[in-house]
Write a structure and sequence with these properties.
Immunoglobulin-like, 2 domains, five-stranded mixed β-sheet, 20 strands
């Protein structure tokens, strides 16, 4: 009986101590704040543009550790900057993806869609009295003698079956990476198998597509003399734009003679020579590519 009374007394004492402790802590209450996760917030300036225009993408997410943009069909193709201006040069439906890594290592993604209106292709011209050099168009009544495409230095020349000004086209580009691109200059040649008299024509015409920022010369050559016309990246000389679209370029043949009066137009061997311009180093240019189609002479 005594043991039982002692046990009850101990329980009452414990209850009393707990009650005093709880009442004594009533004034020492602390507020607890739960962790707020980061939030993905990003916008684009447009969802519908024309080829050659730009869209600006802006990320304003909070509590981020890393960001990564991927721009389908755009230039640049990717970025880790919070604010990026992207240029679209070809038509189509493209997707941009933003991937955010927050400070707690969680990852969220957001996608943006953009519709790019394709540029209008200039009409295909077939002159009544023109000389077809490189063209899929069957309407030419005069065709140049047999031609050869020659990579003289650096340029990799290949024919692509479609997507050209008419369909197939030739593309001239530098090797993708060293050591293939060892020299600082590049050249490629379109030459007649036999010397050809072009003295009755006044212009050489061609469709050109490029975004290259490099200088380039279009040259002609007889047996020993060379004349050329030089293009920079900003002048749009004779219609050669660097906007990534097909543009018709029309060059007066007299300009080749003006640069070199010794050029003999009755004995042309190389009708089109693409040559980089010294001292510019083409290895420092990541876009030294030129697509060419629909080459002909006109009066």
């Amino acid at each position: 009986m005594t043991i039982k009374l002692n046990h009850i007394a101990k329980l009452k004492y414990l209850f009393l101590v707990l009650s005093i402790g709880l009442f004594s802590c009533e004034e020492d209450v602390r507020e607890v704040y739960l962790y707020n996760k980061g939030k993905l917030e990003a916008v684009s300036t447009s969802t519908s543009i024309k080829a050659g225009e730009t869209v600006t993408y802006t990320d304003s997410s909070t509590k981020i550790r890393a960001i990564k943009w991927t721009f389908q069909g755009g230039s640049p193709g990717s970025s880790i900057d919070p604010n990026v201006e992207v240029k679209y040069t070809k038509g189509g439906s493209f997707t941009t993806t933003l991937e955010i890594t927050f400070v707690d290592n969680t990852i969220q993604k957001k996608t943006f869609a953009v519709e790019v209106e394709a540029p209008a292709i200039p009409p295909i011209v077939v002159p009544v009295d023109g000389l077809k050099i490189y063209s899929d168009n069957p309407d030419f009544t005069k065709t140049a003698p047999v031609l050869n495409w020659v990579s003289s230095n650096q340029f990799v020349i290949k024919e692509t079956a479609d997507g050209g000004y008419e369909a197939a086209y030739r593309t001239f580009s530098l090797p993708a990476a060293p050591p293939a691109a060892e020299a600082k200059w590049a050249m490629a040649i379109l030459q007649f198998v036999n010397v050809t008299d072009i003295s009755s024509y006044t212009h050489i015409n061609m469709a050109v597509r490029t975004t290259s920022t490099g200088k380039i010369r279009f040259r002609m050559k007889d047996a020993s003399n060379t004349g050329y016309v030089e293009f920079d990246a900003t002048s749009n000389l004779y219609g050669l734009k660097r906007d990534g679209n097909w543009n018709m370029v029309k060059i007066p043949i007299a300009d080749y003679k003006k640069q070199n009066p010794l050029l003999d137009l009755t004995k042309i061997k190389d009708i089109l020579v693409l040559r980089s311009v010294d001292p510019e180093d083409v290895r420092s240019l990541n876009n030294y590519t030129f697509d060419i189609d629909h080459i002909y002479l006109s009066k």
